[in-house]
Design a protein that fits this description.
Blueprint lengths: L1 E4 L5 H14 L11 H13 L3 E8 L2 E12 L6 E10 L8 H15 L2 E5 L10 H10 L23
Parallel strand pairs: 4-5
Antiparallel strand pairs: 1-2, 2-3, 3-4
């Protein structure tokens, strides 16, 4: 297995992986509409942005994993922070250290971009993989940093008591 930085040409190679992710994610739980064309357009936007990249895990010529990463300036200092936006590895390649390879490449990407920290995210959109992802990050010595909450804005009970 090897890591490559995706180019626009790789979008087509990412489609089978994206379709597998789409079938396994927890898309209905939060009322988030996931549209495949928008997802692939978002990948292309990341590939074309100088502060973002999509790293791909390739095995025997096929893309079997990907990680989106971006950098931003900390609102607390002038430090650059790298933020993993998404991580997905096909199940049969997880035990083969595919996730470790992608995370190591993300760490190196962040260092090369002059970042002082790397934030990894675990989303409940991952469905049953959520706890495994959290445990992986802890085994790699990442500390829990934040918790995020989401609501649909059409829900009239949100912030009603303010």
């Amino acid at each position: 297995m090897k890591i490559e930085t995706a180019t626009v040409v790789d979008i087509e190679r990412l489609v089978p992986l994206g379709n597998t992710w789409y079938e396994t994610c927890n898309k209905e739980k939060f009322g988030i509409v996931i549209e495949k064309p928008a997802f692939y357009a978002g990948l292309e936007d990341m590939i074309n942005d100088k502060n973002e990249d999509v790293l791909i895990l390739v095995h025997e010529g096929k893309v079997v994993g990907c990680l989106g990463i971006t950098k931003f300036k900390s609102p607390l200092s002038k430090a650059q922070i790298a933020n993993e936006h998404f991580l997905y590895v096909m199940e049969k390649h997880r035990a083969g250290r595919g996730s470790h390879l992608l995370l190591g490449a993300a760490r190196q990407w962040a260092i090369n971009k002059g970042c002082t920290h790397l934030i990894l995210n675990a989303s409940r959109l991952a469905g049953s993989s959520f706890e495994r992802v959290c445990n992986l990050y802890k085994r790699l010595n990442f500390q829990e940093f934040e918790k995020s909450f989401i609501c649909q804005l059409k829900n009239k009970n949100i912030l009603r008591n303010l």
